[in-house]
Amino acid sequence: MISKLVFKNTVLFSVLLMLSCGASQMKEQRAKSKEDVVENATPEIKTGADNFDTYLPLLKGKKVGIVTNQTGIIKVAGNTGGIKNDKGEYVGEYEGAEHYISIVDFLLDQKINLQKIFAPEHGFRGTADAGEHVVDGKDSKTGLPIISLYGDNKKPKPEQLAGIDVLVFDLQDVGARFYTYISSLHYVMEACAENNIQLIILDRPNPNGSIVDGPILEKEFSSFIGMHTIPTLHGMTIGEYGQMINGEKWLKNGIQCKLTVVPCLNYKREMFYSLPVKPSPNLPNDQAINLYASLCFFEGTNVSLGRGTNKQFQIYGSPDLPNSGFSFTPMPNEGAKEPPLKGKLCYGEDLSNAPKVHQLELKWLIKAYNETTDKSKFFTPFFTKLAGTKKLQQQIEAGTSEADIRKSWEKGLNDFKVMRKKYLIY
Known about the structure:
- By secondary structure, the protein is an alpha/beta fold.
- The chain has 12 helices and 14 strands.
- It has helices at 2-40, 52-59, 103-109, 158-161, 181-194, 238-247, 286-296, 363-371, 382-387, 391-397, 402-407, 410-421; strands spanning 63-68, 73-76, 83-84, 90-91, 99-102, 113-119, 137-138, 145-148, 166-170, 198-202, 259-262, 315-318, 327-328, 346-350.
- The strands form 4 sheets. A 7-stranded mixed beta sheet has the order 7-8-6-1-9-10-11, with helices on both faces. A 3-stranded antiparallel beta sheet has the order 12-14-13, with no helix packed on it. It has a two-stranded antiparallel sheet with strand order 2-5.
- Helix 5 packs across helix 6.
- The protein starts with a helix and ends in a 5-residue tail after the last helix.
- The model is unreliable at 1-39 and 126-134 (pLDDT under 50).
């Protein structure tokens, strides 16, 4: 009887000991897991604007101008710089939880002598329609003069730059040749070179940074929506692109500007990057930004790509396409006061939940052309400007397969990648 009891107690003790050891091991494993998570956590991407320790010393004591809009923002928290009250608490723009403020407000708070703001297409607040004339004015919050760099004044004039020592450039690009912020960069660099002004680009990640694809622009089709002999998707940040403009001597007469690129931190071009603010009125989310280059070709056709809806650059359709079960009717809204096909019922396709694309997709353009009722009215003259070549339209009209169209880009893309390589930062 006693031996049985001893045996039972021994077994019970052994079980408790095992449980205790197991719990201890699990505790250790959990602790190690937490350490691994902290150790292996991906550092947060910091934009060039967030990398302020690098550029603020370059601006102190200088008269500064800035090219920016609503995308020029910096992340701040309640314990980051800024103005303190008599209790030592941060107030104003820096108060409360982590959030974003305008780079303009940040520079003024840092006592930088900001003279004026230069705004690209869509204006300083980023609400104007694509192609809409934006007038000069004054920022209601800061009182700083705003000079529009769109319409007839794409390049800053000497008198507009008078008295400025340094020009800062902070715009969020999306990596497509026809997105006009890189054209604005070209003219700003040219004006800085001609007027002996230093240019500082605050770099930002390219949300389509891993994609290099599409036809190469041919020089005779250069315009403000395509100034350089590059593919539709260039796969560079705006800072890298500025280095390429300078290095390839694309500015007038081969001049070069005094350029400094303030890099992003913890960034690689393969990384997913979600923009914290719309880069322009008709790119409302990550899906639209990802599909932008592929669907923008519809701007040169009689097909709507969703301007005048809440799914811009995520849908396409036309009254001349067959009833597919999906339809929409474009109506005026922010960023599209007079949308193409306004008030007309359009049939097409909803791509708002389509998988992310990793190349320039032609399948939707080719499908729409093949299904349209009157092919002679499908393309408009604007299509050649967007494509940067007549060949793409000719290939689609001739029934060339997508694979063969893509094959025709190969040499140009390979040559571009070789040239591009020497300007990459990430």
